[in-house]
Amino acid sequence: MSLWFIAWRNIQQRSLASTLTALSMALGVALVAAVLVIHGVIERSFRRGAQGYDLVVGPKGSPMQLVLNTVYYLGDPVGKLPYTHYMELISHRFQLPDGRVAPPFAKCIPVCMGGSYLGFPLVATTPEFFELSFLEGQHYEFTQHGGQGRNMEIGNFWEAVVGPAVAKAANLKIGDQFQPEHTTGLDEEECPEEHHPFTVVGIFAPTGTPNDRAIFVNIEGFWRMHEHHSESSPSSSEAQTPGSSSSSSAKANLQPKPGQPRPDSSASQSQPLAHGSPEQTNLKPSERFISAVLIRLDESDPTLNVALPRLIEDYRIGGVQVFQAVHPSVEVAKLLEGIIGNVQLVLLILAVLVVVVAGVGILVSIYNSMNERKRDIAIMRALGASRLTVMMVILLESILLSLGGGAVGVLFSHGLIGILGPIITEHTGVQISALHFQMSELVLIPGLVILASIVGYLPAVAAYRTDVAKALAASP
Q1: Could you give the dihedral angle defined by the CA atoms of residues 435, 438, 439 and 441, in that order, rounded to the nearest 10 degrees?
Q2: Are 163 and 212 in contact (CB under 8 A)?
């Protein structure tokens, strides 16, 4: 008969006490596993959201606030940049420290924050936004894996693309129209209560990024929607109907003039908003503002990632430095290490303390049962079992209780995460499932064995010192 079997039989003889002891260990381990998994998923989600762009350029202010607002749609914009400053930025050729002239940005996409619909952020941008990969090798899909419709078109000012989480929560479908509730952040004056409606033309497949919980609209329509319906020009109000003659006329007017590059060419950076010019709207160029610029650099030259941020920040317009250039991945790393990492450490310490308390419960449970088992230990010794064998049985009993409770705790933790996963995804946009495991969870196995050995040592020593003659004499 193996020592493991003997230890298991001892646990069965005290089924109620053993079950309660293992349950306390299970709850502690479940808390540890939940902290590890949730932190891992949050960290992966934050890093995933920051991988779509090399640089975020915005007005002077807090770099962290710029990244949180532009990439994660949290908080208010740092400020606003005149559209003319944006045009100067993308047309300027920076001279690198080695004397070379930096090539044009691979992608340079303006974004304008400041609206919402049913609590979901409104992001004004260009169709090029969805030509970027949101993760290395992964692109937005409008017709696969749950995606529907298509991307926005340059000439249709009143088109919108919504994230899958928004489409589900707001019950928006292809062809539906919605009116933004209000705008904040960029406008100094109170905005009109009534805005021009946007039409949903696309719902992209889930990406696991904050974009899933955002609404993207044509930036030209965003600029114009503040104009009251009666003040809007006929061409702009009719341009919302794809396929109409007015829309076709608008598209025709938006074609580049002779000698100018086409919008889909690499040289189109000099005219990023080919879908609207100041002459086609009541807005003056000085009334157009953006919140930030998302920049993708030429991957063939890794030195650009280091040199360009400083050059952009040193660039002056009218003798004033107006830009800040931020690596989103760097700011996210600071956030995770400086804030989220500390929170995880505190939660992990509390969870480990719960496990230690559960371990003490195992010690108390086994030690209190030693008086009842003196006769059994004496019989084992009389049958030839050594003191070390008896001691090992008690230690194995402690290990079984710890590992059994730990296994139940891990299963309970992941099962609860699987149940709550859809609710978490719906309210936060963070995708989490029961199958999300962290490598750090493997540390629980040796950790529980060590803890069980420590708490089982005292009752094992008590078993080791049991006097066989006294134990047999005390029992009839």
Answers
A1: -100
A2: yes
- Evaluated on CA atoms 221, 429, 173, 117, the torsion sign reads negative
| Closest to 448 (Cα-Cα) out of 108, 110, 22 | 22
Query: Residue with structure tokens 């040193």?
Result: 314
Nearest to 154 by CA among 93, 221, 63: 221
Counting residues of the chain whose pLDDT is more than 70, the rounded percentage is: 79
Q: Judging by DSSP bridges, how do beta strands 159-162 and 198-203 pair with one another? A: parallel
The pLDDT score that the predictor gives to residue 429 is 61
Q: What is the pLDDT of residues 364-410, one digit of tens each?
A: 888 887 777 777 777 777 777 787 888 888 888 889 999 999 999 99
Question: Is 327:150 a contact under the CB 8 Å cutoff?
Answer: no
CA distances (Å), 304 to each of 91, 102, 297, 312, in order? Answer: 16, 7, 7, 11
Phi, psi of 365 (to 5 degrees): -65, -45
Q: Supply the pTM of this predicted model.
A: 0.69
Return phi, psi of residue 111, to 5°: -135, 150
Give Cα 60 distance to the centre of its chain.
26
